[in-house]
Queue: 4 jobs
Job 1
Amino acid sequence: MAKKSAAAGRKVLNNQVFRFILSSGTGFVVDIAAYYVFYHFIFTTRNYYFGEFRVPNDTLSLAVSFALGVLVNFFINKFFVFSESQSSPGKQFFRFVAVAILGFFANLGMLKLFIHWLGMYPPVARPLAALSLFFASFFVHKFFSFSLALRHHAPRRHNQTGS
């Protein structure tokens, strides 16, 4: 019985989608917890001004919490989810951040929709915005950030002659 349980556990951990859910869940918790802390305890003024730009506290909280979540997500995805990627770490990080920037604006749009149009409380709207974009991020990171095709990646063999 214990052997079956251990084998089932290994099978689950070998599932890339499950590992992505764990990884993203960790980044999600970091992001949401940071958002709550920044919104309630750090950026307590309703609006902040950077030159002539007005930035509401919910947007500023999102920017900082999202950046923290991206860093946590990248490292966990790189080493736990998409470890078979053969792209250089710099290329992976650049692509991951590029996707994250698009994700930030998608999250910001969803957050504005939930808060300003639907009247939701920002700490409730934030997780809903993030969850609404979750599934698309798996495929974007798999195929773009970490350059993994649908087929299994075999290790690259280098020609000994240098060509």
Job 2
Amino acid sequence: MKRLLFLMAATLLCCALGADAGVPIGTLGGTVLDAHGQPVEGAAVTIQTSDGSMPYGAHTDANGHFQIKRIETGQYDLRASHEGLISEWTKRVMVHANKVTEVTLRLPGGRA
């Protein structure tokens, strides 16, 4: 019985690890800048497919950088927000297989 449970667990693990096998993936990253061109730490970055589905979220580090690894290839729309400021949507950013796509998002100068 223990052996059967072990084999079932191992099979499920193998299926889960191979679930995205064959799906092309890339990396989407970039920088969030304020109105003066300075990096913004702790900005929230919203990333979604161009049809509005599959939302992702990320936050910037101390240098204003964010990165999402292992994202399916395709087109994405992005925007950033921080302390009530919201950037315009950057639309149709193409993520390519096995590549890093970099984007710069700029927050406006006044409160939203």
Job 3
Amino acid sequence: MCLELPVMRRAPVIQSRNVTSLTMRWRAWTNAPGNGMGPVVGYIVYYRSRNDSEWKHKPQTRSRTLTVTGLYASHSYEIRVSAVHQTGLVGPRSPPTETTTCGSRC
């Protein structure tokens, strides 16, 4: 049997934003048909400025919420999340969420 990596079908949701940070949450991976195989041991959040072709990522976390800091004011960002299988293999990235950090005020 071939391992089917866990698939995150839903985009992360922005909980809050300010001038230099974004806080997001996402639903837990579910073992539903078409979502790959578990168990899942964590998640990796990927983000990039819409003007940048290179993705950055945060270290693997077991949490389903995360704050990305050190961002630029009034910049648009794209965010995705992947589930990590217990083997350490990382599933495909979720659909994107796009948002903009605040300017001098939110």
Job 4
Amino acid sequence: MSPVASPRNPRPGSALPLDGTDLAILGELSADGRLTNAALAARVGIAESTCIHRVRALRESGVIEGFHAEINLTALGRPLQAVISVRLGSHNRTHVLSFHAALTAVPGVITVFHVAGEDDYLLHVAVRSPEALRDLVLEHITTHPAVRHTETHLVFEVFSGVGVLPAPSHP
């Protein structure tokens, strides 16, 4: 059954109507989520009261889901990153939901992508060492009864693309 559409949960493929000011606000916040309302309003060229109402509306509508810190994984003692592709042998709902639940408890898993194609999942992980990566795969992933195959790809470098928002207009 599909989730019910609401302002916080629009139908898949649908987008909320956003104007240029909303997009500018989103671009500035995605570049620096710690901007004060006054600084954000000045950068976007609107009144502070308008800015705070717009940001609140973007949060309430679900366009802004939260604010996050970008963590330096090497400084955290997790210099080795990998993407692990996982193929399931069974796609029955119980196995899939069980695998989802198991993934949320695996230390070192940063992001889980449930994907279409030959593989069913891509897991972005960060660990302390090659041995820790081996242990993560062997002790937490391949032991699940629904998993049929894994393939581990080491990450040499991570960088961001241009994204979907306009670049901030300030110098």
